[in-house]
TrEMBL record:
This is Phosphatidylglycerol lysyltransferase C-terminal domain-containing protein. It holds the Pfam family LPG_synthase_C. It is a multi-pass membrane protein. GO terms for molecular function: aminoacyltransferase activity. One of its GO terms (biological process) is phospholipid homeostasis. Residues 2-96 form the Phosphatidylglycerol lysyltransferase C-terminal domain. Keywords: Cell membrane, Membrane, Transmembrane, Transmembrane helix. The lineage of its organism: Bacteria, Bacillati, Bacillota, Bacilli, Lactobacillales. One of its GO terms (cellular component) is plasma membrane.
């Protein structure tokens, strides 16, 4: 975990094969997100890690963009309610 200088936001991450992968949006006060991203990018630079982020919201992606990263939309999340979700029927054939 790396914290903004104010301590009001942080970024959680894991390093694998030289990539420092942040787990989505910074945590904490949205106003401190840019500070948290800056601290995280400095940490990446210190250790020679390539920064990456998975699962950021549009607000999080904008914060990362403003820090110089690029964003790529990989898809949408779906919320499924197991009691109501069914794979039966012709409209779900491609999913089965």
């Amino acid at each position: 975990v790396v914290f903004a200088s104010s301590g009001r936001a942080c970024i959680t991450y894991r390093v694998e094969v030289g990539v420092c992968l942040a787990s989505g949006d910074p945590v904490g006060d949205h106003r401190a997100w840019p500070q948290a991203v800056d601290a995280w990018l400095r940490l990446c630079q210190t250790y020679g890690w390539a920064p990456g982020v998975m699962g950021a919201s549009s607000q999080g992606a904008q914060t990362y963009r403003e820090a110089g990263l690029t964003a790529l939309e990989l898809g949408d999340e779906a919320i499924l309610r197991p009691a109501d979700f069914k794979l039966s029927g012709p409209e779900m054939r491609g999913v089965r």
